[in-house]
Design brief:
By secondary structure, this protein is mainly α. 77% of the residues lie in helices and 0% in strands. InterPro entries: DUF2784.
């Protein structure tokens, strides 16, 4: 397998993984069996956005960073800072305003975090009182 083929495999793998991660971040709180994992994942995501963001730039995502390294190696240029912006542009065929996308991502991410905290707390309270 040549380098180009390997890079294409990584590119597709990142698309599948990153897309699945975004969907899980938005919906993982819905199912009781995934709520605790969701809380860990969304907490790590927000830590990345803010904690690592203090070093690498607000909203930093290692997945995006690694994926963009693959895309650059494939010759793609002009990549935005945001994975979501990139794919919204691809899907809708026009360039979304970066600030609008960042606000949308932040609102949905913080919303998913708050719902996850509430649902996990509710589950903990239910377990603690012995009611199911």
């Amino acid at each position: 397998m040549d380098d180009q083929t390997t890079l294409l495999i990584f590119d597709y793998a990142f698309v599948a993984f990153h897309f699945s991660l975004v969907v899980f971040i938005l919906t993982g709180w819905i199912w009781k069996k995934t709520r605790r994992l969701h809380l860990y994942v969304i907490s790590a995501t927000i830590f990345s956005w803010v904690g690592l963001g203090a070093i690498y730039g607000l909203g930093y995502c290692p997945c995006t960073d690694w994926h963009w390294q693959v895309k650059r190696a494939l010759g793609e240029t002009g990549l935005p800072a945001s994975y979501i912006k990139y794919y919204l542009d691809q899907v809708f065929g026009f360039s979304w305003e970066p600030f609008t996308v960042d606000v949308l991502v932040a609102v949905l991410g913080i919303g998913a975090f708050l719902v996850s905290v509430i649902m996990n707390f509710r589950d903990w309270q239910t377990q603690k009182t012995g009611r199911e």
